[in-house]
């Protein structure tokens, strides 16, 4: 007699996309470049950056997860619409995001903070279901590698309007 065999689907572990996607917003790119300069100079560690930004993205995602998960492959207009929606309705997540960048000694505007954070965040998924977002050391290292390889460059003239005393030094570091 043939025994009836039950088919059991394999249990899949939640997956994390571990790839850095540069922000399209110029202010977010500037913020990210400033962060990478601080890491390169030894002022911050990759581990500290990942820990600080991961805490912010966890707080942000917990508030309105459906807003924070978007494909980073969307076109620039789609990303702009996403950012406008986040800034409009997700005050707690935006505040946590700005506070995280400030804790890293990088004061910034809300839009730049959110866009730069999202460029470093990887979705954690179980099939099609989003379980969360995380910033891990791998994506920070990918951003650092993109910077070192010249794939992540400041826009020409991006820092011309900076009025702070440290602007010439920062500009020199960024354009090395």
Helix and strand layout, with pairings?
Blueprint lengths: L14 E2 L9 H15 L5 H18 L1 H4 L7 H14 L1 H13 L6 H11 L1 E5 L2 E6 L2 H12 L18 H8 L2
Antiparallel strand pairs: 1-2, 2-3
Helix pairs in contact: 1-6, 2-5, 4-6, 5-6
Explain the overall architecture.
With 176 residues, this protein is mostly helical. It has one domain. The chain has 8 helices and 3 strands, in the order βααααααββαα. Strands 1-2-3 form a 3-stranded antiparallel β-sheet. β2 and β3 form a beta hairpin. α2 runs antiparallel to α5 and α4 packs across α6. The longest helix has 18 residues. The protein is globular, with a radius of gyration of 19 Å.
Distance between the termini: 76 Å
Beta-strand percent range:
5-15%
- How would you describe the shape? globular
Ranges where pLDDT stays below 50 over 5 or more residues in a row are 4-16, 157-164
User: How many helices?
Assistant: 8
Secondary-structure element order, N to C:
EHHHHHHEEHH
Q: Please bin the fraction of helical residues.
A: 40-55%
Total domain modules: 1
């Amino acid at each position: 007699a043939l025994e009836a065999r039950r088919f059991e689907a394999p249990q899949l572990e939640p997956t994390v996309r571990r790839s850095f996607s540069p922000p399209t917003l110029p202010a977010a790119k500037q913020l990210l470049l400033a962060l990478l300069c601080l890491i390169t100079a030894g002022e911050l560690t990759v581990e500290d950056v990942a820990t600080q930004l991961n805490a912010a993205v966890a707080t942000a995602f917990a508030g309105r997860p459906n807003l924070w998960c978007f494909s980073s492959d969307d076109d620039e207009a789609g990303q702009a619409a996403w950012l406008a929606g986040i800034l409009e309705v997700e005050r707690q997540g935006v505040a946590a995001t700005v506070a995280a960048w400030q804790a890293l000694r990088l004061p910034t505007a809300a839009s730049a903070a959110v866009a730069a954070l999202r460029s470093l965040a990887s979705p954690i998924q179980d099939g099609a279901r989003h379980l969360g977002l995380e910033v891990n050391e791998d994506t920070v290292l990918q951003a650092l590698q993109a910077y070192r390889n010249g794939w992540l460059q400041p826009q020409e003239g991006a820092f011309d309007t900076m009025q702070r005393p440290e602007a010439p030094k920062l500009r020199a570091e960024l354009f090395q």
